[in-house]
Amino acid sequence: MTLSFHDPILVLTSDPQVNTLVETMLRPEGFDVKVVTLIADAKKTLNEGFPRLAIIGEKLPDGSGLTFARELSDITPTTPVILFTYQESTTMLKQAIQAGVMDTFTLPIRGDDFLKLVRNGLAIADRRRGWMQKETRLATANLRSQMSDLETLSRLSQSITSKLDLDSVLSTVMDTAVSLTNAEESSLLLVDETTGELYLRASRNFREDTGNVDFRMGIGDTLAGTVIRTGQPVLVDEDNLKKIKTDYLVYSLIYVPLKTHDRIVGVLGVDNRNLKKPFNDYHVRLLSAVADFAAIAIENAQVFSNTDNERARLETILTKVQDGVIILDAENKVIFVNQGAREALSLNGTEPASDSDISNLQMDQIMDLLDRGSSRAEINLNEGRVMDAQVTPISNVGTVITLHDISMFKELDRAKSDFVNTVSHDLRTPLTTILGYVELVERVGPVTDLQREYIRHVQMSVHNISNLVNDLLNLGRIEAGFDKHKEIVHIDHLIGESCETLKDQLAYKGHRLSVDIPPNMPPVWGNPILLAQVVDNLLGNSIKYTPPGGQIFIKAEIEGNQMILQFKDTGVGIPPMDLPFIFDKFFRASNAAGEASGTGLGLAIVKSIVETHYGRIWVDSVLSQGSTFNVVLPLYEETKSSPTTGE
Ligand code: ADP
C-alpha cells in the first residue's frame, strides 16, 4: 500500500458537535475528510488506504476509541491520532499517551484551536511519512546493490565452471574484486612452494606506474604474510594504517586468504591508493567469496594441468616406444597408432584417420587375430619381418594390440634349426653304420661276457643318440611346418591306438590305466600323425615318470567348442622351480636324472604340435605325488572352414 500526502483525514466520533465542526471547519479549508460513526466502518475504510490523520472519539457505539487507536498505530504508525474526550482526567490522559495518541481535545471546542490541532497533526504525519519514504528508499537501494553484488558473484562462478584457462578466469576474478569493492587496484599473490615467497599471479591496475612484472614479496612481517599465517582476512583503513607495515603506501586495503582444502595458497587483495575511500566488513565478506572462487579456479587448473601432463607423458611414451601400439575402441575403431606400429605396418603416408575402422589399416593378419579372439600370434610382414602381436582387451577402453619385432630371434632360431637339422641328418648314417657293425661283432667270432656287456652299452648309447636325432628332426619338421596336412581326427581313436602300442611298457611297470572318454566324442581338425605323437609322448611320460605299480588316468571332456584332454599320473611330479621350463627344448627336471633316459625334447614337440593346432597345454604337478598334463584343442566345426587348411 502506498502512502500519499493527500490521503484523507479519518473522523470517527458519534458526537454531532464534532461532526458539525468537521463539516464547517475542515471541508472549506480543502481537507479531504471521511466521517464515520462506527469502528467497524472505520476499519473498512482502512482497506482502501491509510488515513493521514485520525480523529477518534473516546467512546463509540461499538467499542473503545482508545483500543482502536492502539490498533491503528500498529497498522499504520505514520498516522497520528487525536482523541476526542468528554472529560480529560489524568488517568485518561495517561492511557491516551500509552495508546500512542498525539493530542486530545474536549468540549467546548473553539474553531481556531481545532484547526491548529489538525494542522499540527498533519505536520507530524507528513514528517513521519517523509522519514519512512527516505528509509524505504535507502533499504531498497541497499537491497539492489546487494542483489547486483550477488549477480556479479554468480557471473564469476559461471565463468569459473565454464572456462579452463586459468589466466582468463583470474582476469575475471580481478575485475570482479575491483568492481564489487569499488577499489582502485586488485592483486592476487600466490605462495611460491620453493622459496616460500609470495609472487604476483594476477592483478588489475596494480602498481602500473612501477611495472608489476615479477613482483615478489616475502611473507615475513608483511601484511599479506600475516594473512597467510593466520588464515584471517585483514581490513586496513586510515585509523590503523599507521600501525601496520604494508610494503607500499595505500589509503585503505583488504587482504583475504585463498584457501584450497585446508591449505592457504595465497592472498587476494584490493586497495585504494589515491582515492580516500574506506572499505568495510561487507567488502571483506564479498572479497572472501571472490577468493573462494579464485581458489576453486586455481585448484581446477592444477587438477586439469596434472591430468593433462600425465596424459601428454603417457602419449609421449606410447608414441616413442619402439614396439608398435594400436589402440582400438569397443567398436574396433582406431583410437591411436604409434610410430612403431606405423613403421611395422608401413602406414606412413597412408595415415589412418583417428576413428576409422580397423579394417582401413589393411592388416588382414591383425583382423584375423581379432576375429579369432586370439590373445597372441606371429604376424609375417614384408621383407621377412616377423612381429609378435599381442591382443589385450581393456575394459572401458577397447583393445590394445602391441607389435614386438621378433625377426632377429626368428632368424637366429631358423639358423639354429638349420644347423641342428643338418647335423642330425648327417649323424643318422654313421649311427646306423655303428649299430650295424656292433651287431656284426658277435656274429664274426666268439665274444666274452664282458665284451658282450660292452657291446650292449654301445648299442644302448647309440640307440639314445638316434632317439635324440629323431626327436630333433621331428621338431625341426614341425617347426618348419612341413606336416601341414590336416583332416578330421578322432582323438579317442588315437588314444586307443596309443594305449595298445604302449601296453607292454604299462605291463612292465605294473601300472593301472583308466581311460574316461565320453561316447560319440566330436572330432578335431588336425594332422593325425602329429596328434598321435602328442598322445604317445604324454602317455609315454606318465608311464616313464611313475614308479612301478602307479596309476594313470586319461580323461577327455568337451567344453563349448573345445576338447580338454588330461593325462594324469601318480608319479614323481615336477619340482615347482622346474615347472616354468618344462616345455623348453632339452629341459629335463632336476628329479628326472634317476629315471629313464630321455632327450628333453618330447614336451617341446608336444607343445609345438598343440600350438600349430591352435590349442593350449599346461601342467599341474605336485612333487612326489603326480602330474596332470592338460591339453585344450578346438573342435572341428563343419560350418566354419578351419583357418589353416593349408594342405
Ligand atoms: P624326456 O622325457 O625325454 O626327458 P620330455 O620333454 O618329454 O623329455 O620331458 C621333459 C621333462 O619333464 C622330463 O625330463 C621330466 O623331468 C619332466 N616330465 C615330463 N613328463 C612328466 C611326468 N608325467 N611326470 C613327471 N615329470 C615329467
Automatic annotation (TrEMBL):
Q: Which residues form the PAS domain?
A: 310-351
What keyword terms does UniProt attach to this protein? Kinase, Membrane, Phosphoprotein, Transferase, Two-component regulatory system
What's in the GO CC field?
plasma membrane
Molecular functions (GO terms): phosphoprotein phosphatase activity; phosphorelay sensor kinase activity
Residues in domain Response regulatory?
8-122
- Keyword Membrane listed? The answer is yes
Domain Histidine kinase: from-to ranges: 422-637
Annotated EC: 2.7.13.3
Family annotation (PROSITE patterns): HIS_KIN (PS50109), PAS (PS50112), RESPONSE_REGULATORY (PS50110)
Q: Which reaction does it catalyse?
A: ATP + protein L-histidine = ADP + protein N-phospho-L-histidine
What is the official name of this protein in its record? histidine kinase
This chain's source organism reads Leptolinea tardivitalis
